[in-house]
Write the structure tokens for this entry.
Amino acid sequence: MSRYSFHRWRSFRVLIAFLLLVSGVSSYIYLSSRPPYTHYSSVDRFEFETSERLSHEVGKPGKYVLFKQLRGAGFNNQAQEILLYHHLALLSSRIYVYQPLVWRPRGEQSYVPLSAFLRSPTEGSLTVTFFDHVCHPDDVKHVTLSQGIGYNHVWDHALSVLNGPEKCIVVDDWILNWNYLASSAIHAIWPSFNKYLRETFTWSDKIYGIAQRASSALNLHSGANPTGNPYIALHFRRGDFEGHCHVLAERHVGFTTWATLPLLSESIYPPQLDSMNETSTMEHCYPDLSRIIDMIDDYARSRPHLRTLHILHDGAWDHPLVYMQKYRLERTLKDAARAKAKGWAGGPITTVTDSSMVPLAWGEKDWSVAVDVELARNAEFFIGNGYSSLSSQVVALRLGADGGRPEDIRFM
Ligand SMILES: *[C@@H]1O[C@H](CO)[C@@H](O)[C@H](O)[C@H]1NC(C)=O
């Protein structure tokens, strides 16, 4: 090794050590802003005890079903699937055996208890850690439900098998896979799923609590804060989405799950999406700011009472550009001269709030994504991204759980 390359090697090592230190410190800060594991352990214990009590309830010879579920991906991808599985279990009078959420922000193999986020699918259900106590191997029937069955028949076929007499059924294939959820087969499920959401959907108390605190602090209208400002919620999906949209455009992928419902076809901001046209896909998946501003103009111009905008975004220290775009959006919409020129009846937007202003206490970070969904759900008007599972979840709750109108939803 020459003297020169030795020197270079040493500075390289110093650099690596420095980078390791920085990433160590930042991941420490990042992780400690999340709920402590002791909170999750106590929720785990509660789930186990509740399941134990459930299994001992006399006079209730329960039937159970354990599904193969998505392991990974984002919170809303998992949530939408869990709600559908729970619905399927209830329809077939089986007790849903629930599994923990895979919590990527904490690392690929990290699990958090479901009831810390979604309460309804765990009520009257059994945690998977108690499954073996209730279902002895002799009682368990393993089935596959989607092989060789067209998407349009998967749901009904699943129901007919689950209606069978077996005490415990384990479904070994992933029936609600991406392709299934992207297909129009789910439209037939919507009427009953809609009712299911209205009758059962609940978040955990933590999530309701933080959402209420956010509504008061940001003065946004909600059931708990009826005097707050009525507002437009905009899901500004940026960050890593641009690359993702390019991939979707190349593969000619259309909107996701509930965003494809025919009753929402009028809610898509024109021109209509043509997934065979890559420019059209990018226009809907990653629209430029002017398109988003046009959409806000289009709705708010004639509604003078609506002068507050809440932006849900994924801006963070690793996606700083989101903040710059948010700033430009805010400056444009608050411009009085521009609002006048565009014919806004009651003047420009006066208040802009965003996800980063939600008052989270130390250790509440894991819940922020669900709080975003809740704030978008309570908005008078929602502008979402039809390619995003978060937006799709918001729309399902607005239409289903809250009986909201498609007219108050717009997809970019
Ligand atoms: C593709 O979509 C873009 C954006 O909507 C549109 O301007 C263009 O005319 C479309 N091309 C074709 C061939 O339809």
User: Anything to note?
Assistant: Residues 231 and 308 are 5 Å apart (CA to CA). Residues 271, 277, 279-280, 283 surround 2-acetamido-2-deoxy-beta-D-glucopyranose (CB under 6 Å).
